[in-house]
Amino acid sequence: MREGQFIKRNLERWESYQQPSEDPDEVARQFTCLVDDLSYAKTFYPGSNTIKYINGIAANIYLSIYRNKKEKSQRLLTFWSHELPLVIHRHHRLLLYTFLFFISFIFLGVLSAYADQDFVRAVLGDHYVDMTETNIANGEPFGVYNSGNELAMFLRIAFNNIKVAFNTYVFGITLGVGTLYLLFHNGLMIGVFEYMFFHHNLGFKSVMVVFVHGTLELWSIVVAGCAGLMLGNSILFPKTFTRMHSLKHGAKDSIKLIISLVPVFIVAAFFEGFVTRHTGMPLWLSLLILLASAAFIVWYYVIYPIKVARKEK
After folding, report:
1. Helix axes 3-16, 24-44, angle to 10 degrees
2. Tens of pLDDT, residues 212-264
3. pTM of the model
4. Which residue, 227, 218, 219, is CA-closest to 255?
């Protein structure tokens, strides 16, 4: 069939397709017919303007179907229950390495403070150490947590936690060096901080008080560190992709990991602002909060992602 005859036979139908029907079945039929016409034109009239014309109509129908497609109502639920756990599972090994790095830096802080008492002041500063020792002498070693307004403290702590995690993540762009430095810095501070209380025979009490909020708070640093190292690794080890493509992929996964910290930030700040201030709370309540926080971390970041990945396979 000559091209002119092909156009003459189908032009009226093509023109009618330029206003897609409201009937989904009719739209599907029109799209199928256009694909058939496009295949025919490409076979017998290669390089023809007819191909561009048919392709344009088909593209408009395709866009009319998908442009206003609504997200599934359960999209948010799917993200937390399926998409995010799969991301965590893909990077389980890196998350473990980040955790081990951070724990090592904490122990390094403890050992350094044990070897040199002046190291505590060098890391925490004279003002904080003097204030803490004064509180200990007055019988309120954790008085810093019950001073000030609860809401103001909650907001200040939430902002600080977000800032620390964001910096730890963003500095992953320095090929991970900046992220490792911030993990080292924060780990060292935690180690020195805990040693200071153990040195005054308040170690167990400090764990029962501080780790009510500290369990989630410290875990957020680990997760942010993992996200930062993901960013650095995507640049250092692009595998078969270009570095830019690898960076985009790494940024996409790492941002999802950072999003997982939103509820962690809120709960940790709530505990520190409204709960930790009650330093005389019963031991069983402190243990309950601490163990519940640890159980959540183990379940959502370790066990559940493995279950989702197995189900996916």
Report:
1. 160
2. 889 999 999 999 999 999 999 999 998 878 888 899 999 999 999 999 999 99
3. 0.75
4. 227
Amino acid at 52: K
How many Å apart are CA 248 and CA 241, to the nearest integer? 11
d(CA 143, CA 282): 17
Looking at residue 152, what DSSP letter applies?
A: H
Share of the chain above pLDDT 70, in %: 96
The answer to whether 165 and 265 are in contact (CB under 8 A) is: yes
Measure the CA–CA gap between 256 and 249, rounded to whole angstroms: 11
For CA atoms 293, 212, 268, 226, the dihedral sign is: negative
Compute the distance between CA of residue 54 and CA of residue 309 in angstroms, rounded to an integer.
Answer: 43
Structure token pair of residue 130: 């003097």
Q: Is-contact 232 287, C-beta < 8 A?
A: no
Instruction: Output the CA–CA distances (angstroms, integers) from residue 186 to 41, 132, 211, 271, in the order listed.
Output: 66, 19, 15, 20
Helix spans in the chain (H): 3-16, 24-44, 49-66, 75-78, 84-90, 92-115, 118-124, 126-137, 150-170, 177-199, 203-236, 243-259, 262-270, 283-298, 304-312
The answer to whether residues 57 and 18 touch, using CB atoms and an 8 Å cutoff, is yes
Q: Sort 5 into a burial class: Cβ within 10 Å, 0-12 / 13-18 / 19+.
A: exposed
Angle between helices 150-170 and 203-236 (to 10 degrees): 30
Q: What is the DSSP-derived secondary structure letter of residue 272?
A: I
CA distance 143 to 278: 10
The DSSP code for 69 is: P
Classified as helix, coil or strand, 294 is: helix
| Cα-based distances in Å from 124 to 52, 127, 188, 277 | 69, 8, 10, 21
Of 150, 132, 137, give the one whose Cα is nearest residue 276.
150
